[in-house]
Amino acid sequence: MQAIFSPATGKLSDRINPSVLATGGMALITAGLMLFTVLSPETSITIIIVDLALLGFGYALFASPNTHAVMNSVPLKLYGVPSGVLGTTRMCGMMTSMGISMLAFSLTIGNTPISVVDTESLLLSINSAFMIFVILCAVGTFASYMVIRNKGKE
Q1: CB distance 58 to 29 below 8 Å
Q2: Backbone Cα Rg of the chain
Q3: What is the dihedral of CA 96, 98, 99, 102, to 10 degrees?
Q4: pLDDT at residue 154 tops 70
Q5: Which end of the chain has fewer CB atoms surrounding its CB within 10 Å, N or C?
């Protein structure tokens, strides 16, 4: 979904305020992550596929317009700086997400090997990690919305 829609959202961000698109994408990502906080053994594969598609579309709405907004905030001769900042931020986000996931697993299942962990403990770990991600994403969505709102008052 992200690969399919990112080129279109990138072009759309030339005509519409990229911050609005990015905030909408973050809101969709928050909603998609929220759906993953209630995973259970009864969750159908169809629901998981639809949720992953929603997340992919949310990422498409966020990534290209966000990159567009950041890159257009500096003169052409300085493009290396925001590009480096975006890459570093992306990498730090991925590493933080892995740390949060491992913390959730560690606090819930401890040193027990995954192969012998009961389903309930494993799902509690997964759902807990997703809830933390929902909270972080919601905070980011709110912050992005406030930027748009404050720009409108200028």
Answers
A1: yes
A2: 18
A3: 160
A4: no
A5: C
